[in-house]
DUF4359 domain-containing protein
Amino acid sequence: MNRNLLYLIISLFAVLALILTNPKEHKAAVKAKMSQIIQQTVLEENKRDNGVAEKLGLSLGALMGGYMVDRLIEGSITRTNYLLFSTTNFVSGDESTTIGLGILGSVYLSSKIDKKLKEVRKQQ
């Protein structure tokens, strides 16, 4: 078999694998990350010597945070498909920031998501 033909076949299989494993779960990945950040914040606040009422308020805030996360994701997170891979974008007003990359069946989120969440919290 010709060496060039072998390289072509391997390349075609690699491209086909990338196309077939391009993930669509970008919003789910962002939701999981944001829920993790909220839980971490609540745990850090609960470690402080706060009163029972304040701890109860933090727990209630964590529950409400799940609802807010859903609303934020539906309105601000988009996916751009480039066939071989896809990107996760955070859209705020007319500004769009890439916060993740989807390739080979997984979504990888960058640390930019933490910065964008802090900006959104300050705006609210």
